[in-house]
């Protein structure tokens, strides 16, 4: 009786890696592009307006420490308490600092040097509105009245330039060493060099002055300071960029918004006439959050010397050409 040899058993299938395990081992780089997890930031004027938006955004994004600076310590403390409660840990540290004072800047540098000893991101956001425009659209002032009115604002111009221009430059100068140290941290070694971001304004491009003559001139100068910084700090492996917001909820924007028929109360999206902002609304928190997450993360790590406009098209309504 003949016999046959049974065929060999099929080989066991090769082991495969579970999809979830593979994703954990090799996270999608796209999902990490806008991450700010672990960054250490310093924001001047970080307790109100745009500064508070930036503080909240970085905290929610996973920043390990955010120093917020200003002259109104109770306001900073209140902001820190609210943001820390939001993220469930003490991430935001309020510190008194007058950016127009060399002594105050140096003192703050010493405090941070004794704490973590470095920062990865410096956001020069603090500023003031300065003397406001008082020209009436229905009854223009006489030349003599306008002339006297402007001559009376000399002290206001000096104060505005000191806060919005000189303060930006010397804040950056004061914290350069801490920024350079940030390049040698885990965050800095991850492909994102330390950075200065100057928060300026589209007012710096306007020949008119809805926010004040001194304010517009100071913001034009602040924008140029940011661009000068971009060329300077590359010497030490850092970079600088400028963000020029349009109308966002803030103390300084309130007079302009109200003059344009808008209201700063009620929350939510604040509508504006399209002749003021072509998109028909004021900027909101998400609009500003997107800019900072881009510039501060790996997504914007190749940006240096950029001027980013965040204004809903408002600059297009300005009489900035025609010389």
Report the β-strand fraction as a percent range.
Answer: 5-15%
Could you say how many structural domains there are in total?
Answer: 1
Assembly form of the protein: single chain
**Ends: how far apart?**
110 Å
Main sheet overview: 7 strands, parallel
Helix and strand content put the structural class at alpha/beta
H-E order: HHEHEHEHEHHEHEHHE
- Give the overall pLDDT as a whole number: 88
CATH topology: Rossmann fold
CATH class: Alpha Beta
Question: What is the correct CATH architecture?
Answer: 3-Layer(aba) Sandwich
Over all CA atoms, what is the radius of gyration? Answer: 25 Å
Sheet with most strands: strand arrangement:
3-2-1-4-5-6-7
Number of strands: 7
What's the helix count?
10
């Amino acid at each position: 009786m003949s016999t046959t040899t049974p065929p060999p058993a099929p080989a066991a299938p090769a082991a495969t890696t579970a999809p979830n395990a593979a994703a954990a081992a090799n996270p999608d780089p796209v999902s990490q592009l806008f991450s700010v997890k672990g960054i250490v930031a310093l924001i001047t004027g970080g307790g109100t307006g745009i500064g508070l938006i930036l503080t909240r955004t970085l905290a929610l994004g996973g920043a390990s420490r955010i120093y917020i600076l200003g002259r109104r310590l109770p306001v900073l403390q209140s902001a820190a308490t609210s943001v820390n409660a939001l993220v469930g840990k003490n991430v935001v540290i309020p510190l008194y600092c007058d950016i127009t004072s060399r002594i105050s800047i140096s003192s703050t540098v010493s405090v941070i040097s004794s704490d973590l000893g470095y920062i990865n991101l410096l956001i020069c956001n603090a500023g003031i509105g300065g003397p406001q425009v008082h020209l009436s659209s229905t009854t223009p002032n006489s030349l003599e009245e306008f002339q006297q009115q402007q001559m009376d604002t000399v002290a206001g111009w000096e104060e505005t330039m000191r806060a919005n221009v000189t303060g930006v430059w010397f804040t950056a100068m004061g914290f350069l060493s801490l920024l350079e140290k940030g390049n040698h941290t885990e965050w800095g070694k991850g492909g994102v060099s330390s950075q200065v971001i100057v928060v300026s304004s589209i007012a710096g491009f306007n020949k008119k002055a809805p926010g004040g003559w001194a304010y517009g001139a100071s913001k034009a100068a602040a924008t140029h300071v940011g661009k000068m910084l971009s060329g300077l700090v590359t010497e030490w492996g850092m970079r600088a960029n400028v963000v020029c917001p349009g109308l966002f909820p803030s103390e300084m924007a309130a007079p302009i918004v109200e003059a344009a028929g808008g209201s700063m109360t009620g929350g939510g999206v604040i509508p504006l006439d399209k002749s003021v902002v072509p998109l028909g609304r004021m900027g909101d928190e998400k609009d500003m959050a997107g800019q900072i997450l881009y510039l501060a993360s790996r997504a914007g790590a190749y940006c240096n010397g950029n001027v980013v406009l965040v204004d809903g098209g408002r600059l297009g309504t300005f009489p900035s050409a025609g010389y």
